[in-house]
């Protein structure tokens, strides 16, 4: 039920975003408003960069899976690969669904173990490339995080909050990084620091 309600909630939130944002802005104390507006602009930049990075990753994975499955001789391999890559916007869903569909199609059209081992090999290689190079480089660069920070954010988010934690880990880490930079610069302005 929650899975079905999420798109409805998301649509209403997006359509009412300006009104919600304007009401929330009125609650901010007047002296803090310029700083909060600057922070919100930065958070917006981070989130849009994250979305662009995720879409780039999904397109690259769609190409890699599609071409890999086509090379293994999997029936409908290109189509299954494109779907797997595009679904990878949602962590684990794309890989699990794609692996299941590709395996079932390979077994249904069984003509030897070559195609089945090819499917497993494509998944192993693409998952390795995605986890170590593609996602940390593309998404991390878009939001201003290093490869190590991106991987650490994904691990912590996944361990603490599971699937939802992995989805929001990178933008939250990037926003926290900007908050910490702001706090650091404010600390350097304090009399306590200057002595």
Q: Which parts are unreliable, with pLDDT below 50 for 5 consecutive residues or more?
A: none
Total DSSP E strands: 0
What is the global morphology? Answer: elongated
How many strands, which pairing sense, and closed or not: the largest β-sheet?
A: none
Write the element-wise H/E pattern from the N-terminal end onward. Answer: HHHHHHHH
Q: What's the helix count?
A: 8
Query: How far is the N terminus from the C terminus?
Result: 58 Å
User: What percentage of residues falls in helices of 4 or more residues?
Assistant: over 70%
> How much of the polypeptide forms β-strand, as a percent range?
under 5%
Structural class: mainly alpha
Please compute the radius of gyration using only Cα atoms.
Answer: 21 Å
Mean pLDDT: 84
Write structural notes for this entry.
- This protein is 87% helix and 0% strand.
- It is mainly alpha-helical.
- Helix 4 (77-87) runs antiparallel to helix 5 (93-108).
- The longest helix is centred in the last third of the chain and has 43 residues, at 147-189.
- It is elongated.
């Amino acid at each position: 039920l929650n899975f079905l309600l999420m798109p409805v909630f998301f649509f209403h939130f997006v359509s009412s975003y300006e009104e919600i944002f304007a009401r929330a802005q009125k609650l901010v104390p007047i002296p803090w408003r310029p700083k909060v507006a600057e922070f919100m602009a930065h958070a917006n930049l981070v989130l849009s960069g994250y979305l662009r990075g995720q879409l780039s990753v999904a397109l690259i994975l769609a190409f890699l899976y599609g071409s890999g499955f086509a090379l293994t001789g999997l029936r409908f391999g290109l189509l299954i690969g494109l779907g797997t890559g595009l679904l990878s916007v949602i962590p684990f869903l794309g890989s699990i669904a794609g692996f299941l569909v590709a395996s079932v199609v390979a077994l249904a059209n069984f003509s030897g173990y070559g195609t089945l081992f090819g499917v497993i090999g494509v998944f192993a290689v693409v998952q390795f490339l995605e986890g170590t190079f593609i996602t940390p480089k593309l998404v991390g660069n878009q939001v201003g995080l290093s490869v190590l920070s991106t991987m650490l954010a994904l691990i912590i988010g996944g361990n603490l909050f599971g699937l939802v934690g992995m989805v929001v880990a990178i933008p939250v880490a990037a926003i926290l990084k900007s908050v910490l930079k702001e706090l650091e610069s404010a600390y350097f302005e304090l009399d306590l620091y200057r002595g």
